[in-house]
Structure formats: structure tokens, C-alpha cells
Amino acid sequence: MREFDYRRAHDVQHALTLLAADPDARFLGGGTNLVDLMKTGVERPTRLVDVRELPLDGIEPTAEGGLRIGATVTNSDLAAHPDVRRHHPALAQAVLAGASGQLRNMATVGGNLLQRTRCGYFTDVSGPCNKRVPGSGCPAVTGEHHQHAVLGASDHCVAVHPSDMGVALTALDAVVGYETGEGPEEKPITDFYLPVGDTPHRETALPPGALITHLILPPPPAGARSRYRKVRERASYAFAIGSVAARLTVEDGRVAEARLALGAVASRPWRAHAAEAVLTGAPAGGATFAEAADAELAAARPLPRNGYKVPLMRNLVVSVLTELAEEATR
Amino acid sequence: MTTTPPAHRSVGTARTRVEGRDKVTGAARYAAEIPFTGLAHGWLVLSTITRGRIREIHTAPVLDMPGVLTVLHHGNAPRLHTDYVGLLGVPPDPAACLFQHDRVPFAGWPVALVVAGTPEQAREAAEALTVTYEEEPHDTALTADHPDAYVPEGGMPAETSKGDLEAELAASAVVVDEEYTTPEEQHSMMEPHAATARWDDGRLEVVDSNQGAGWVQGELATLFSLDPAAVRVRSEHIGGGFGSKGLRAHQVGAVMAATALDRPVRVVLSRRQLFSLAGYRSPTIQRVRLGAGADGRLRALEHRSLNQTSQVYEFLEPSAGVARVMYDAPAHRTAHRLVRLDVPSPTWMRAPGEASGSFAIEVALDELAERTGTDPIELRLRNEPDAGPVSGLPFSSRNLAACFREGARRFGWQDRDPRPGLRREGRWLLGTGTAAASFGAGAAPSTAQITAEPDGSFTVRIAAADIGTGARTALTLIAADALDTTPEHVRVRIGDSDFGPAMIAGGSMGTRSWAWAITAAAQDLRERLIPGTAVPPDGITVRSDTTAALGALSRKERHSFGAQFAEVAVDTATGEIRVRRMLGIFAAGRIVNPLTARGQLLGGMTWGISMALHEEAVRDHHTGAHYAPDLAGYHVATHADVPHLEADWVDDHDPDDPVGIKGIGEIGIVGAAAALTNAVWHATGTRHRHLPLRPDRILTAAPGTKGEPTKRA
């Protein structure tokens, strides 16, 4: 019997103290990923600090006109919130594209940011994996990598980040807020997720022992349209093989502002800066969108068996941007 | 043969399951849920290498772990008697015959069983058990030109041939010559295998989840060299079997441990363990060559199929067998070959042979329809055989044409423009497709007992299995009619080997075989019941045995038939496919319970969607082991993948069966994947010949895509 200690935190400071008392403790949000990993033996915490009861479940407007989203807001509540649906439809669509109704009722925003890859080697404790056991090797490079990364990967790890929500947040310039015990801190989500490099086990810039408390979503520009599209190997309840979150502002037929993030292509939600550079100021049309997609995907380094992701992402980017441009000029 | 008595008619009326309330309220207990006093729990340890030899099993540290009672392995397990042929004419799969030697023939081979006081203790200790191996190079990859392919002996037969194939092909106006492949597919039943074994007063009792209590009882008695009368196997409720739930490692492990410890022991397989221990549908590589005149009439038909099996067990997936039933030609050849690889043993899986074989031949027929400019239904009707293409025997009934005509009418086939790639709705291309289906209709000897109770009710006892199909309910309706009473007066008890020999739930033969035995017993019982005379306190019991009656059946081609129709939407930019609707019309004998029959047929069609679009067990050929063997990695269709489906049937009473039954267990899946694949061609103009129709395959095959074709590892 694998025993562990379970504690319920009643405020943020209490949560940090409970976690600090045990070096192998983990925060427990909805448990929709952590508990699975405990069952398979990937995670073996000796203590769980349940943070679901913390008073971090609100979604409130910020002074700048954006939204402050508490870390324990459930995915279901996030996707259903009127301000999220109205101002950040890509985020609501991304959340609803993930998991199932039951899981979304349990899963929390903070936990979603920290969910682990679904790479089959990572979840199989009988074999090596650099992310699970640093230095043990990556079987995916020579083995099964049909669903693995084509951007920003290294020889150490080619796993992809599983989150849908994170892709939308990355496109929408979200900021992650957390508490370290020495005070609150914030980090843009693009800095929050680390490049894979030779440390695939280090996934985020969250300091050890810190607790995610909230997200900040800045207000979208006037007239902006956003959208999330996910492609997977069945119609529901599967992780993406490719996804796109995009926000487009079109003025006088030209792209005034573009935000683009790609999912299921890298170890983290992939912010498409190269594509955005092509888009900004260019005519809002198919040629621009294709050029933007190609600019981003020029850096793609597919493995022998995941080359399809390059045309898939190209088509998805063009399709989603075209839809947004048509919506903007309707 | 008697006909159904006139006063009561339950067969043909829609009835909910007699145990439905128990199932939805949780009152129905499944094998892993039944409590036993003093129960211990076993957890299997599976090999982490793919081929080699066990060097050492370090049991000492694990035996010191909390709650651990014993560790069984090849060094201490009892010797089993494995050299026999079981009820279904095949020897036991060595993967079930635990711990008889130190060889490892595939990844996930059982090497030890850790038994402890709780399931958690057993699992923790099993995961802590260190096993060292001498590893050897392995080969797990099935290839069309594998040098070790061979023609298996006996059985089917493996090959049939008539006419001069090459001459007819050369003389054909149109030739289709293509390779089709299907991947490894897993049964994925909801309830994993589970068994509890205990010794009770010198008798071995096993509570299990299986497709034939008597079947498993016979296997266990033989393996452990026990008097069959000293072994009882019960299997009350089963959460799906699909061919996988026969003798497996869990029962053998439970019996070994219960014997060693002299206390009840339960062994439950995990979802991951099922992937290597519970059988699967072998991947197939099939080659179909069709030669036809300009009118589409076949002159030559060749269907070859290659499948894999394990190093320790020979299992043939008879994919080319479907051509022996469906289509005739002056030159006709079917052939099977096998390759032994370092992989787990495959087994029967819903519509073995027909599911995979119909994909190849029915897509090939669609290609022939395309190339001859013939309507796909008309092409099939033009090639309807008068007798078994290989056997020459008459068909007991062959209502395929009726299925196509009724299906075409209801699906709106007559309005279909045959040209591909024309219909667009937003980003979706739309298309429709059809395919034929068939599955053998058989019966096997069974025994039944019926007791007339003093209160006027009846108790039927038969070692049948309700694997979720509604068999218990169907048998209740059949018994009620045969006894000329209402279903409320009939109790059907099943799933107990003490009830005597009976056919398993398999081969679409269960209900027909059991119904025959029940009908025979009922007839006998009614002759013994004297009107106006009281039934004695312990009732009047009669027994039947259908061995002689079945032996007297004339030889015929006996099959169910069907026509599958599908409409799909395809986005070639992303490779996504969405099924819009499906219709299946079947000629499958008399339908006993329309409610559960429709469910079973729709279930088969749903699996057909899953087979067409999703299912694929992936093996890493470098390690030799499965990649992501769980229901997150192995996709089955979700609700969102399954749109409006309709299943219905045409009248098809089997005159040679006392109830008129043929069997509906498998036919629902047959042809479904082909109909969908043909619809994808009609939508896009691109022909797909490899399952599943993954987005990457659709995407990279689309004209103008700068993609690399992708293969699994």
C-alpha cells in the first residue's frame, strides 16, 4: 500500500506551509492528472495539500479592463463565464475542447497549467524517460512519436504539452500569478513555460514551493476576434494532434494586431512570434496567412513519423485566420 | 421440429433486460465485486523484455513487504497439463498456462504472481519485484514480405483454389490489384478479466467473468489434472467479452494461489495487462485481385491474407474466408499465411476474419465499381452466387439482395451521384458508401434443464453466458414460448458449469445453440405435464441434449447477411472525418428481442466506426512493447463520433432452426469499416486502403498537401 498524507489548506499561507513541511509534497487541485499519475506510479508524493477549498475561485474584472481568474476556478466555470465567452472566446472554446464534462467540473485553472505530458513513455514507469527520470533516455526519438513535437524539441525530449487552455492563454498574453511565501509574483505565460533544452524535467519557471494563485488576462483590442480550433484523432475526449489559438484585429483590410499560438507541437504552448511578425500590418488574406504559417513552421524539425504535423498546422493556421478575417469584415 | 406454441408469443416482442434493474442500480455484482471471507489478492508481474530468459526473480525483499503471502513463479509453481485440445478445438494459449518455464516469448508475458492481503499490497509488491533477464533480439514487425511467413495446417482450410487465376485476370477488361491493411485491434471490453478461486470441501470453485462457464471449467480441470466434477465455474454477469474471455492467466493464477495458500484468491487484470494477456485481433496485410468484364461480372477473385501470431500459439485470423461466401468467379483463390513474431497471442475478436476481411474485399469491390462505372450495389447484385463459391453447397437462405434493396430505399441511394469529390458543405466534403456483410450462422451441441415448479412457474438451467447482449432475456422469451407461458413465469439461470455442457457465447452461435436445447427440453417437459395433475413438491425436471439433432442437420452454407450504408464528412485540410449517419439492414434469422437485438447491431456498427477511424494498438518495434496501452492511448469511438445510426432487418426465418434464429452477435461490425472507407472515397476522390483512417493519412493523401506520409513506429 502506497500511503500518503492528505491535508486540506484553508488559506494560501497555510498551503505554502503545509507544502514546505514535506519535500515530496504536491498541491492537489482537481486531481484529474495528478491522481492518474499516482495510480501509474509516475508521481509518488508523500503528502497531498488540497488547495481546492482556497478562496481563489473568483473571476473578476481588472482595472485595465481585463480579467483576473482565480487558480481554483474550475474549467467548467471558466468556460461558462460570460466575460470569458464575450471577450476571450478562444479561451472558452479551448477549455471546452479539452477532457470531458466530468473532468472539466473537477479540473482547476492552476492545475491545468501544470498538467504533464501524455507521452506514452512518460506514463510507462517500466521504461526510460528523461522527463520522468532525468538522464535515463528518450525512447520516443527512435520509437513511437506520431503525436510528438515538431517545434522547439531537443534530443532529450520530444513530448508535447497537453493543455488546450494553455494554448489559448499563450495567444491571449496571459500572466500567471503565484505566491512564494515571500510575496506575490507574476510572470507572462510565455516565460512561465521553459524551453525543453536538456532539462525536460523542468517544465515551468514556477519557483519550488510556490502556489499559483491567479491568471491575468489583459483586455483584447477593440474589434478583435479570437478562436480556438483543435484537431484530434476522434471527435471528443482526446488530446490534440494540432491546435491553434488565434486573435485577429483587422482594420481597413489589414491586420492591426495578431496573436497566434500553436498546440500539440512543442513541449509548451507555442507562441508563434514569427507568424505574428508577418501578419502585423499585412493585408488580411489567404496569401498573408499562408506566408505567416510558413514563417513559423520554417523552424519545424519533424521526426520520421510526425511530418504530417507541418501541413496540418499550416492548414489549421490558414483556416482559422481566414475564418477570423471573414468574421471581422462581415 | 416444433413450431412456437400458439397461445403465448413473446419471441419478437421488445423486452428490457430481466436483470436490467440490477445492473443500473449496482445490485448486479461482477466477478471482481463478489465478497469472500478471507480473500487474498494476486497481482501479475509481466515481463519488461520482449524476448529472452528469466535469469532471476528476487522474491526475498518482496516477501518481506506488508501483507505479502507468496510469490508464485516458474521456480515454485505447480506443473500444468497443457497438451490437450479444448472445447473449441484449440489447445490452451501458453500465456494462460502460467509459470511453466523460464522463457519470455513477448513483452508483457506473465513471470510472477504476487499474492497479498489487499489488492494495494499485492500491486505495490508486484511493482517492487525485481526480475533480471537474459535478453535476446526480437522481431515484432509484420511485413508483407516477411521471410518466415508460412501456410498453417488444418482448420479452415488455409487455402482454396479453383480455375486459372492468371488466365482469367489476363482476359479481364478491368483489374483491381491492391493491398489493404488493418492494424492490431484490442477487444477493449468495459470489464477487465477477474476471477476468484477457492477450495470448498474438496471442490474447486471459480467465480469468473467469461464467455462459457463450462468451457473454462473444462480447461481448468484439464490443466490442473482434476476430476471435472470437482471443478465449478460461475460467471453471472459479464461486462463484455468479444472473444477475449476464455481461459486466461487470471483464472490459472487464482487457482494456483488458492491451492498454495488454501484460501480464496482473486486475480484481476489491469487495463494495461489486457493488452498482452487477453488476446487481440492480429494486424492483417491483405492482397485482393479482382478481374471483371466491363459489366463488372467477376472472372477472377483472389483474396490473400497474412497475419501474425505469437511464438507459442498459432492463431489464424481468417480474413480471406469472407470471399468463400460472398462472391464467386470462374477463377477463385483464397489463401492465408501466418508469421510467428515475438508478440502476444492473438485470438477471436468480434467477427474474426469477417471484420478485417470484409474491409479488404468490400473496398476492392467499390474500386471495381468505380473502374467499371457500375453502381456499387448493382455490382454486388450482379455477382450474387447461386451456391457457395467454394463449397458448392446451397445457401440455407441468402437475403443479401433484400438487405441492399431495403437499405437503398431507406438511405436514399437512388439519388446518389456516383462521382467523387463533388459535394461540399463549408470545409467538409460529403460522401456516401456501402458494403456487404456476412457472418456464419451455426449452432453447437448444448444441454439444458427445465423444471416445472409446483407454483406453475418454470426454472431453466443452462450454462449459457450473457456477456451483455441480453442473452438471459432472449432465452426467457424463447422458453416462455416453448412452454406456452408468459416470461414472468420463467426464471432462466445461466453462467454455472454445474448446469451441464453448453455452447459458449461466441461465434454468433450462443443464443441459437441454447435456444435449441431449451426448446427441446420444453417440448419434452410439456409432454410430461399432465393437465389437471399437480406438480410434485420438488418439481418435474427434464434435460435435453441437442448433439443428435445438430448432427442430423444437412450441410448447407448458413450465414447471416447485411448491407451497410454510411455518409461521412471529410475535411482534407485537417484530415478529420465525421460520420453523418449510418444504416445497417440485416438478414440475420428470426429476431428474438427487437430491443436488445437492435442494441447489439448498433453496437457492432459503432465498433465499425471505431475500427474505421480510431482503433489501433501501437507497438514500439525497438522495445517490442506496446506504446500507451490504455484507453487514453488506444482510442475507441466516443459518443461524439457516433451520429444517427439505424439498424433494422428483413424477414429471414431460418427454416432449419426450431426458433428460426441465425445469430446477430457479430454481423453488425462486418462491412461497416468498408462502407465508411468507401464513403470517404466518394467524399474526397482519394482511395484509402489502410485502417484506421487517421487524420494524418487523410491529410497527407489529399491532393496538393506538402506532407510526408506517416507510419507508426
TrEMBL record, chain B:
Transmembrane segments: none annotated. The keyword Phosphoprotein does not apply. The keyword Oxidoreductase applies. Keywords: Molybdenum, Oxidoreductase. Residues 25-137 form the Aldehyde oxidase/xanthine dehydrogenase a/b hammerhead domain. InterPro entries: Ald_Oxase/Xan_DH_a/b, Ald_Oxase/Xan_DH_a/b_sf, Ald_Oxase/xanthine_DH-like, AldOxase/xan_DH_MoCoBD1, AldOxase/xan_DH_MoCoBD2, AldOxase/xan_DH_Mopterin-bd_sf. It comes from the Bacteria. One of its GO terms (molecular function) is oxidoreductase activity. SUPFAM superfamilies: CO dehydrogenase molybdoprotein N-domain-like (SSF54665), Molybdenum cofactor-binding domain (SSF56003). Gene3D superfamilies: Aldehyde oxidase/xanthine dehydrogenase, a/b hammerhead, Aldehyde oxidase/xanthine dehydrogenase, molybdopterin binding domain. This is Oxidoreductase. It comes from Streptomyces albidoflavus.
